[in-house]
Amino acid sequence: MSEGVRASRLRTGRRALPAPFARVLGRAAAPARSARRAGGVLAAAARRGWEPVGAVVSPYGVAAVVVALAAWAAGLAYSWLEVLVVAVLLTASLAAAVVFVLGTFRYTVDLGLATRRVTVGDRAVGRLVVGNASARALLPSVMEVPVGLGSAAFPVPRLRPGAEHEEVFTIPTRRRSVIVVGPVRSVRADPLGLLRRAVTWSQPQELFVHPVVKSLAGSSTGFLKDLEGRATQDISSSDVSFHALRDYVPGDDRRHIHWKTTARTGQLMVRQFEETRRSHLAVMLSTRTADYADGEEFELAVSVCGSLGLQAIKEDRGVTVLVNSGSLRGDHRTRLLDDLARVELSPSKARLADVARVAAATVADASVVAFVVGSGVPPAELRAASARLPQDVSVMALQCVPGAVMSKHSIAELTVLTLGSLGELPLAMRRLADA
Question: Which residues form a coiled coil (predicted)?
Fold first, then answer.
Protein backbone atom coordinates (compact mmCIF):
# COMPACT_ATOMS: atom_id res chain seq x y z
CA MET A 1 0.00 0.00 0.00
CA SER A 2 1.39 3.40 -0.95
CA GLU A 3 2.16 6.12 1.60
CA GLY A 4 -0.46 8.42 0.00
CA VAL A 5 -3.27 5.89 0.50
CA ARG A 6 -2.12 5.17 4.03
CA ALA A 7 -2.08 8.89 4.88
CA SER A 8 -5.56 9.41 3.46
CA ARG A 9 -7.20 7.02 5.87
CA LEU A 10 -9.37 8.37 8.67
CA ARG A 11 -8.66 6.73 12.03
CA THR A 12 -11.76 5.97 14.10
CA GLY A 13 -11.24 4.08 17.34
CA ARG A 14 -8.61 1.40 16.83
CA ARG A 15 -8.99 0.81 13.06
CA ALA A 16 -8.38 3.04 10.02
CA LEU A 17 -11.05 3.35 7.30
CA PRO A 18 -10.18 3.30 3.62
CA ALA A 19 -10.01 6.59 1.77
CA PRO A 20 -13.47 6.36 0.05
CA PHE A 21 -15.24 5.82 3.37
CA ALA A 22 -13.22 8.62 4.90
CA ARG A 23 -14.36 11.02 2.16
CA VAL A 24 -17.98 10.03 2.63
CA LEU A 25 -17.79 10.52 6.39
CA GLY A 26 -16.05 13.86 5.92
CA ARG A 27 -18.83 15.11 3.60
CA ALA A 28 -21.46 13.87 6.07
CA ALA A 29 -19.78 15.63 9.01
CA ALA A 30 -19.39 18.95 7.18
CA PRO A 31 -22.97 20.15 7.83
CA ALA A 32 -22.60 19.37 11.54
CA ARG A 33 -19.37 21.37 11.70
CA SER A 34 -20.99 24.26 9.85
CA ALA A 35 -23.93 24.16 12.25
CA ARG A 36 -21.59 24.27 15.25
CA ARG A 37 -19.71 27.22 13.80
CA ALA A 38 -22.97 29.04 13.05
CA GLY A 39 -24.20 28.31 16.58
CA GLY A 40 -20.99 29.72 18.02
CA VAL A 41 -21.33 32.89 15.92
CA LEU A 42 -24.96 33.33 16.99
CA ALA A 43 -24.07 32.78 20.67
CA ALA A 44 -21.28 35.37 20.46
CA ALA A 45 -23.61 37.84 18.76
CA ALA A 46 -26.24 37.22 21.45
CA ARG A 47 -23.68 37.85 24.18
CA ARG A 48 -22.56 41.07 22.52
CA GLY A 49 -26.15 42.18 22.12
CA TRP A 50 -27.03 41.37 25.73
CA GLU A 51 -24.04 43.14 27.25
CA PRO A 52 -25.43 46.69 26.90
CA VAL A 53 -28.86 45.47 28.03
CA GLY A 54 -27.46 43.55 30.99
CA ALA A 55 -25.47 46.62 32.04
CA VAL A 56 -28.69 48.65 32.30
CA VAL A 57 -31.27 46.15 33.54
CA SER A 58 -31.05 45.48 37.27
CA PRO A 59 -31.97 42.13 38.85
CA TYR A 60 -35.36 43.65 39.74
CA GLY A 61 -35.76 44.67 36.11
CA VAL A 62 -34.98 41.15 34.89
CA ALA A 63 -37.55 39.76 37.33
CA ALA A 64 -40.10 42.34 36.15
CA VAL A 65 -39.54 41.38 32.47
CA VAL A 66 -39.91 37.66 33.21
CA VAL A 67 -43.07 38.17 35.28
CA ALA A 68 -44.54 40.52 32.65
CA LEU A 69 -43.98 38.01 29.84
CA ALA A 70 -45.44 35.20 31.90
CA ALA A 71 -48.45 37.37 32.88
CA TRP A 72 -49.12 38.32 29.26
CA ALA A 73 -48.93 34.69 28.17
CA ALA A 74 -51.15 33.39 30.97
CA GLY A 75 -53.61 36.27 30.79
CA LEU A 76 -54.12 36.03 27.03
CA ALA A 77 -54.24 32.25 27.03
CA TYR A 78 -56.82 31.91 29.81
CA SER A 79 -58.50 35.34 29.54
CA TRP A 80 -57.46 36.01 33.13
CA LEU A 81 -58.23 39.68 33.74
CA GLU A 82 -56.30 40.10 36.98
CA VAL A 83 -53.15 38.67 35.43
CA LEU A 84 -53.56 40.95 32.41
CA VAL A 85 -53.74 43.95 34.75
CA VAL A 86 -50.45 42.86 36.33
CA ALA A 87 -48.90 42.49 32.86
CA VAL A 88 -50.06 45.98 31.85
CA LEU A 89 -48.75 47.56 35.05
CA LEU A 90 -45.35 45.90 34.73
CA THR A 91 -45.09 46.82 31.06
CA ALA A 92 -45.98 50.43 31.83
CA SER A 93 -43.41 50.51 34.64
CA LEU A 94 -40.70 49.19 32.33
CA ALA A 95 -41.63 51.69 29.62
CA ALA A 96 -41.51 54.54 32.13
CA ALA A 97 -38.15 53.31 33.42
CA VAL A 98 -36.72 53.53 29.90
CA VAL A 99 -37.56 57.24 29.82
CA PHE A 100 -35.50 57.83 32.99
CA VAL A 101 -32.31 56.30 31.54
CA LEU A 102 -32.53 57.57 27.97
CA GLY A 103 -30.43 60.49 26.82
CA THR A 104 -26.78 61.30 26.43
CA PHE A 105 -24.39 62.18 29.25
CA ARG A 106 -22.07 65.11 28.61
CA TYR A 107 -20.59 65.88 31.98
CA THR A 108 -17.21 67.27 32.90
CA VAL A 109 -16.11 65.61 36.12
CA ASP A 110 -13.13 66.65 38.23
CA LEU A 111 -12.24 64.50 41.24
CA GLY A 112 -9.43 65.85 43.40
CA LEU A 113 -7.86 65.12 46.77
CA ALA A 114 -6.52 67.91 48.96
CA THR A 115 -3.50 65.70 49.64
CA ARG A 116 -2.57 62.23 48.49
CA ARG A 117 -0.80 61.31 51.73
CA VAL A 118 -2.02 61.68 55.30
CA THR A 119 -1.22 60.14 58.67
CA VAL A 120 -3.65 57.99 60.62
CA GLY A 121 -6.21 60.28 62.26
CA ASP A 122 -5.55 63.26 59.98
CA ARG A 123 -8.35 64.81 57.97
CA ALA A 124 -8.51 63.79 54.31
CA VAL A 125 -10.71 65.93 52.07
CA GLY A 126 -11.92 65.23 48.56
CA ARG A 127 -13.60 67.57 46.06
CA LEU A 128 -15.98 66.62 43.27
CA VAL A 129 -16.94 69.16 40.59
CA VAL A 130 -19.57 68.18 38.00
CA GLY A 131 -20.21 70.44 35.03
CA ASN A 132 -22.59 70.42 32.07
CA ALA A 133 -20.60 70.44 28.84
CA SER A 134 -23.61 70.16 26.53
CA ALA A 135 -25.71 72.87 24.90
CA ARG A 136 -28.88 71.82 26.69
CA ALA A 137 -29.90 71.26 30.27
CA LEU A 138 -29.18 67.86 31.85
CA LEU A 139 -31.67 66.04 34.02
CA PRO A 140 -30.84 65.29 37.67
CA SER A 141 -28.59 62.31 38.28
CA VAL A 142 -26.48 60.73 40.97
CA MET A 143 -22.69 60.61 41.11
CA GLU A 144 -21.24 57.57 42.86
CA VAL A 145 -17.70 57.71 44.22
CA PRO A 146 -16.29 54.41 45.54
CA VAL A 147 -14.14 55.03 48.62
CA GLY A 148 -12.24 51.95 49.69
CA LEU A 149 -14.73 49.16 50.32
CA GLY A 150 -17.65 51.59 50.58
CA SER A 151 -19.26 54.07 48.24
CA ALA A 152 -20.55 57.64 48.52
CA ALA A 153 -23.49 58.93 46.48
CA PHE A 154 -23.90 62.62 45.63
CA PRO A 155 -27.14 63.85 44.03
CA VAL A 156 -26.54 66.23 41.13
CA PRO A 157 -29.40 68.63 40.40
CA ARG A 158 -30.59 69.70 36.99
CA LEU A 159 -27.71 71.52 35.34
CA ARG A 160 -28.08 74.28 32.81
CA PRO A 161 -25.54 74.55 29.96
CA GLY A 162 -22.16 75.50 31.41
CA ALA A 163 -23.33 75.19 35.03
CA GLU A 164 -21.32 73.34 37.68
CA HIS A 165 -22.14 71.55 40.92
CA GLU A 166 -19.51 71.08 43.65
CA GLU A 167 -19.39 68.56 46.49
CA VAL A 168 -16.75 68.42 49.26
CA PHE A 169 -16.42 65.21 51.26
CA THR A 170 -14.17 63.80 53.96
CA ILE A 171 -12.54 60.38 53.93
CA PRO A 172 -12.17 58.39 57.17
CA THR A 173 -8.52 57.74 58.08
CA ARG A 174 -8.95 55.78 61.28
CA ARG A 175 -6.49 53.06 60.26
CA ARG A 176 -3.37 52.70 58.15
CA SER A 177 -4.21 51.67 54.60
CA VAL A 178 -4.22 52.63 50.94
CA ILE A 179 -7.71 53.87 50.07
CA VAL A 180 -8.77 53.80 46.43
CA VAL A 181 -11.04 56.76 45.66
CA GLY A 182 -13.04 56.56 42.43
CA PRO A 183 -13.67 56.14 39.62
CA VAL A 184 -16.60 58.55 39.54
CA ARG A 185 -19.73 57.10 37.93
CA SER A 186 -22.85 59.01 36.93
CA VAL A 187 -25.98 56.97 37.56
CA ARG A 188 -29.47 57.38 36.20
CA ALA A 189 -32.18 55.07 37.50
CA ASP A 190 -35.95 54.94 37.72
CA PRO A 191 -37.66 55.25 41.12
CA LEU A 192 -38.43 51.51 41.22
CA GLY A 193 -34.84 50.51 40.46
CA LEU A 194 -35.74 48.44 37.39
CA LEU A 195 -33.18 50.09 35.09
CA ARG A 196 -29.87 51.62 36.06
CA ARG A 197 -27.46 53.28 33.65
CA ALA A 198 -23.94 54.13 34.83
CA VAL A 199 -21.12 55.91 32.99
CA THR A 200 -17.56 56.18 34.29
CA TRP A 201 -16.01 59.65 34.13
CA SER A 202 -12.64 59.53 35.94
CA GLN A 203 -9.74 57.32 36.91
CA PRO A 204 -9.31 55.95 40.44
CA GLN A 205 -6.89 57.70 42.77
CA GLU A 206 -4.98 56.33 45.74
CA LEU A 207 -4.95 57.94 49.16
CA PHE A 208 -2.05 56.76 51.33
CA VAL A 209 -2.81 56.68 55.05
CA HIS A 210 0.66 56.48 56.61
CA PRO A 211 1.33 54.94 60.02
CA VAL A 212 1.99 57.15 63.02
CA VAL A 213 5.74 57.53 63.58
CA LYS A 214 7.86 58.97 66.36
CA SER A 215 10.84 61.23 65.82
CA LEU A 216 14.02 59.83 67.34
CA ALA A 217 16.05 63.03 66.88
CA GLY A 218 18.19 63.78 69.90
CA SER A 219 18.16 60.19 71.12
CA SER A 220 20.80 57.66 70.24
CA THR A 221 19.16 55.00 68.13
CA GLY A 222 21.90 52.46 68.49
CA PHE A 223 23.26 53.16 65.00
CA LEU A 224 26.98 53.49 64.40
CA LYS A 225 28.03 57.11 64.62
CA ASP A 226 31.56 56.98 63.22
CA LEU A 227 32.13 59.03 60.11
CA GLU A 228 34.39 56.62 58.27
CA GLY A 229 32.64 53.38 59.13
CA ARG A 230 33.34 50.57 61.53
CA ALA A 231 36.42 48.42 61.01
CA THR A 232 35.75 44.69 60.60
CA GLN A 233 37.98 41.63 60.69
CA ASP A 234 37.85 41.34 56.89
CA ILE A 235 41.10 42.27 55.14
CA SER A 236 40.91 44.53 52.11
CA SER A 237 43.50 45.82 49.66
CA SER A 238 41.91 49.26 49.55
CA ASP A 239 40.22 51.05 52.46
CA VAL A 240 40.93 53.66 55.12
CA SER A 241 41.78 51.56 58.21
CA PHE A 242 45.46 50.49 57.99
CA HIS A 243 46.16 46.95 59.17
CA ALA A 244 49.66 45.74 58.19
CA LEU A 245 52.24 45.39 55.41
CA ARG A 246 52.73 42.40 53.17
CA ASP A 247 54.82 41.37 50.19
CA TYR A 248 53.88 42.77 46.81
CA VAL A 249 51.95 40.41 44.55
CA PRO A 250 51.63 41.04 40.81
CA GLY A 251 48.35 42.82 40.24
CA ASP A 252 48.43 44.90 43.43
CA ASP A 253 47.72 48.60 43.09
CA ARG A 254 51.07 50.40 43.01
CA ARG A 255 49.54 53.34 44.82
CA HIS A 256 49.52 51.23 48.00
CA ILE A 257 53.24 50.41 47.89
CA HIS A 258 54.97 51.52 51.10
CA TRP A 259 58.15 53.03 49.66
CA LYS A 260 59.99 53.63 52.93
CA THR A 261 59.70 50.00 53.98
CA THR A 262 60.51 48.90 50.42
CA ALA A 263 63.72 51.01 50.47
CA ARG A 264 64.69 49.59 53.86
CA THR A 265 64.07 45.93 53.06
CA GLY A 266 64.89 45.98 49.38
CA GLN A 267 61.59 44.19 48.61
CA LEU A 268 58.33 45.68 47.43
CA MET A 269 55.86 45.96 50.32
CA VAL A 270 52.20 47.03 50.07
CA ARG A 271 49.73 48.20 52.67
CA GLN A 272 46.89 45.99 53.91
CA PHE A 273 43.68 47.46 55.28
CA GLU A 274 40.84 46.38 57.50
CA GLU A 275 37.59 46.63 55.62
CA THR A 276 35.32 49.29 57.09
CA ARG A 277 31.56 49.14 56.98
CA ARG A 278 29.26 52.10 56.68
CA SER A 279 26.37 52.28 59.14
CA HIS A 280 23.54 50.33 57.56
CA LEU A 281 20.32 49.46 59.37
CA ALA A 282 18.26 46.41 58.46
CA VAL A 283 14.78 46.27 59.96
CA MET A 284 12.93 42.95 59.81
CA LEU A 285 9.21 43.50 60.29
CA SER A 286 7.32 40.27 60.78
CA THR A 287 4.03 40.15 58.84
CA ARG A 288 3.12 36.64 59.92
CA THR A 289 -0.32 36.51 61.51
CA ALA A 290 0.74 34.01 64.18
CA ASP A 291 3.41 36.42 65.47
CA TYR A 292 0.79 38.89 66.78
CA ALA A 293 -2.01 38.56 69.30
CA ASP A 294 -4.20 41.09 67.48
CA GLY A 295 -4.14 43.86 64.90
CA GLU A 296 -3.24 46.50 67.49
CA GLU A 297 0.12 44.82 68.09
CA PHE A 298 0.81 44.79 64.38
CA GLU A 299 -0.03 48.48 63.97
CA LEU A 300 2.39 49.33 66.79
CA ALA A 301 5.06 47.22 65.11
CA VAL A 302 4.55 49.03 61.79
CA SER A 303 4.87 52.40 63.55
CA VAL A 304 8.09 51.30 65.28
CA CYS A 305 9.50 50.05 61.98
CA GLY A 306 8.65 53.34 60.27
CA SER A 307 10.21 55.38 63.09
CA LEU A 308 13.50 53.47 62.88
CA GLY A 309 13.60 53.64 59.10
CA LEU A 310 12.84 57.35 58.90
CA GLN A 311 15.53 58.18 61.45
CA ALA A 312 18.11 56.27 59.42
CA ILE A 313 17.03 58.06 56.24
CA LYS A 314 17.15 61.41 58.02
CA GLU A 315 20.73 60.72 59.13
CA ASP A 316 21.61 59.76 55.53
CA ARG A 317 22.42 56.19 56.49
CA GLY A 318 21.51 53.09 54.56
CA VAL A 319 18.32 51.30 55.56
CA THR A 320 16.71 48.10 54.34
CA VAL A 321 13.26 47.04 55.49
CA LEU A 322 12.39 43.37 55.07
CA VAL A 323 9.02 41.66 55.52
CA ASN A 324 8.04 38.03 55.06
CA SER A 325 7.06 38.58 51.43
CA GLY A 326 10.11 40.62 50.37
CA SER A 327 11.61 44.05 50.91
CA LEU A 328 10.24 47.59 51.04
CA ARG A 329 11.71 50.72 49.49
CA GLY A 330 14.00 52.46 51.96
CA ASP A 331 15.63 55.02 49.68
CA HIS A 332 13.21 57.84 50.54
CA ARG A 333 10.92 58.62 53.45
CA THR A 334 7.80 58.97 51.30
CA ARG A 335 8.37 55.72 49.44
CA LEU A 336 9.04 53.88 52.69
CA LEU A 337 5.83 55.19 54.28
CA ASP A 338 3.86 54.39 51.12
CA ASP A 339 5.05 50.78 51.26
CA LEU A 340 4.33 50.57 54.98
CA ALA A 341 0.78 51.78 54.28
CA ARG A 342 0.28 48.70 52.08
CA VAL A 343 1.73 46.14 54.49
CA GLU A 344 -0.81 43.66 55.83
CA LEU A 345 -0.72 40.53 57.94
CA SER A 346 -0.68 37.24 56.06
CA PRO A 347 -0.76 33.57 57.11
CA SER A 348 2.81 33.06 55.94
CA LYS A 349 4.71 29.89 56.75
CA ALA A 350 8.04 31.75 56.75
CA ARG A 351 9.20 32.32 60.31
CA LEU A 352 11.45 35.08 61.58
CA ALA A 353 14.49 32.81 61.30
CA ASP A 354 13.73 32.28 57.59
CA VAL A 355 13.59 36.05 57.02
CA ALA A 356 16.87 36.44 58.93
CA ARG A 357 18.49 33.83 56.69
CA VAL A 358 17.43 35.80 53.62
CA ALA A 359 18.71 39.02 55.21
CA ALA A 360 22.11 37.48 55.91
CA ALA A 361 22.46 36.69 52.22
CA THR A 362 20.96 39.84 50.70
CA VAL A 363 21.98 42.58 53.18
CA ALA A 364 25.56 41.57 53.77
CA ASP A 365 26.65 45.15 54.58
CA ALA A 366 24.21 45.61 57.47
CA SER A 367 25.87 46.78 60.67
CA VAL A 368 22.72 46.87 62.85
CA VAL A 369 19.73 44.55 62.56
CA ALA A 370 16.44 45.19 64.36
CA PHE A 371 13.71 42.56 64.68
CA VAL A 372 10.25 44.15 65.05
CA VAL A 373 7.76 41.51 66.20
CA GLY A 374 4.68 40.94 68.34
CA SER A 375 4.02 38.92 71.47
CA GLY A 376 3.52 35.71 69.48
CA VAL A 377 7.24 35.24 68.80
CA PRO A 378 8.80 33.03 71.52
CA PRO A 379 12.33 33.68 72.86
CA ALA A 380 13.65 30.53 71.18
CA GLU A 381 12.63 31.83 67.76
CA LEU A 382 14.25 35.22 68.43
CA ARG A 383 17.45 33.44 69.41
CA ALA A 384 17.31 31.24 66.30
CA ALA A 385 16.82 34.28 64.06
CA SER A 386 19.74 36.06 65.70
CA ALA A 387 21.96 33.03 65.14
CA ARG A 388 21.34 33.25 61.38
CA LEU A 389 23.12 36.62 61.19
CA PRO A 390 26.90 37.26 61.05
CA GLN A 391 28.63 37.54 64.40
CA ASP A 392 29.95 41.06 63.76
CA VAL A 393 26.44 42.50 63.31
CA SER A 394 24.71 44.22 66.23
CA VAL A 395 21.27 42.67 66.71
CA MET A 396 18.32 43.90 68.76
CA ALA A 397 14.66 42.89 68.98
CA LEU A 398 11.71 45.16 69.65
CA GLN A 399 8.65 43.25 70.85
CA CYS A 400 5.48 45.31 70.54
CA VAL A 401 2.85 44.59 73.19
CA PRO A 402 0.37 47.50 73.63
CA GLY A 403 -0.21 48.29 77.28
CA ALA A 404 2.83 46.39 78.53
CA VAL A 405 5.44 47.95 80.81
CA MET A 406 8.61 48.89 78.95
CA SER A 407 11.39 46.46 79.80
CA LYS A 408 14.72 45.19 78.55
CA HIS A 409 16.19 41.71 78.83
CA SER A 410 18.74 39.58 77.04
CA ILE A 411 18.54 36.25 75.27
CA ALA A 412 22.16 35.13 74.99
CA GLU A 413 23.78 38.03 73.06
CA LEU A 414 20.45 39.36 71.77
CA THR A 415 18.93 42.41 73.50
CA VAL A 416 15.12 42.39 73.58
CA LEU A 417 13.11 45.55 74.26
CA THR A 418 9.41 45.29 75.11
CA LEU A 419 7.39 48.36 74.11
CA GLY A 420 3.90 49.16 75.35
CA SER A 421 3.42 52.27 73.22
CA LEU A 422 5.14 54.19 70.44
CA GLY A 423 6.01 57.04 72.80
CA GLU A 424 8.37 54.72 74.70
CA LEU A 425 10.59 54.13 71.66
CA PRO A 426 12.99 57.12 72.10
CA LEU A 427 13.56 56.26 75.79
CA ALA A 428 14.09 52.59 74.91
CA MET A 429 16.70 53.54 72.31
CA ARG A 430 18.55 55.72 74.81
CA ARG A 431 18.61 52.89 77.34
CA LEU A 432 19.91 50.56 74.66
CA ALA A 433 22.69 52.99 73.73
CA ASP A 434 23.69 53.50 77.39
CA ALA A 435 23.96 49.77 78.05
Answer: none
